[in-house]
Amino acid sequence: MSGSHTVAAIDCGTNSIRLLIASADSDGRLVEQARELEMVRLGQGVDATGSFRPDALERTFSACRTFAQAIADHHCDRVRFVATSAARDVSNRDAFFAGVRQALGVDAEVIDGMEEASLSFAGAISGIQVIDEPVLVIDCGGGSTELVLGRGSSIDSRVSLNIGSVRLRERFLHDDPPTVEQIDDARKYVREALDSCPVDVAAARTVIGVAGTVTSLSAIGQNLTDYDRAKVHRSVLTVGQISDLAGKLLSSTVDEVEQMGPLKRRRAEVLCGGAVIIDEVCRRATAGKLVVSETDILDGMALAMLAQGS
Quick one: signal sequence residues (predicted)? Predict the structure, then answer.
């Protein structure tokens, strides 16, 4: 890989849209130039209506225009825009594609859950030194959750499940805070998805979590008032800590959750749903703890682009 190449990776999920601009050093490791995040809630209401709301599309296109300026400032050689769970089944995808193309000058790719899982795995292991294998990577998003089990850079099994923080919040956790019955229904839904999951969660010796739910849980667990990626990356949450945090989030109002740490409002609104998923997955794991990674699908995308560019 050549350090002269600079690439931009954009991950557009159900709750957030994120940008990574990076190059590579002489050893092929990523050199981060910029990393940005906007909470746009593109998937707002999609689970119920099957279409993107006009205001959600405009929030997303506004973020794309902001990202376009950063991409131009860094003279990126290549840009890749991937959309995940929210964009897979909506009826008005054409409006989304047209808006992205107008804002960024590139076509959006709607990738399937299997590719999303593979990119998340590659990104996660690029930033965490794994001692005990096999390793399980959990990527809990707004609309789906990917589970990937592998050794080294090889994947043994992977799955994309239709469980996500926004999906659980909108489908089950209606009250603020949710009722006991709502929480029970949400947990039942997650457990049923995990019961039929082809990935053997219990086989993992190391469990790595990526994306906003786990990084937010880490920030709250560390009592951070300002978000610090260096403190979050490679931090560890025990299964007991995750269970306690999930219980605390589920028994709190969104206003109370927002005050627990450096959380954006749209993250605070759905964090309890994500916490249920992470809690249920980690209860099935035998590793006893979760390692939090700040490197994820964006890093996997950037590494792949830089490798192709060489």
Answer: none
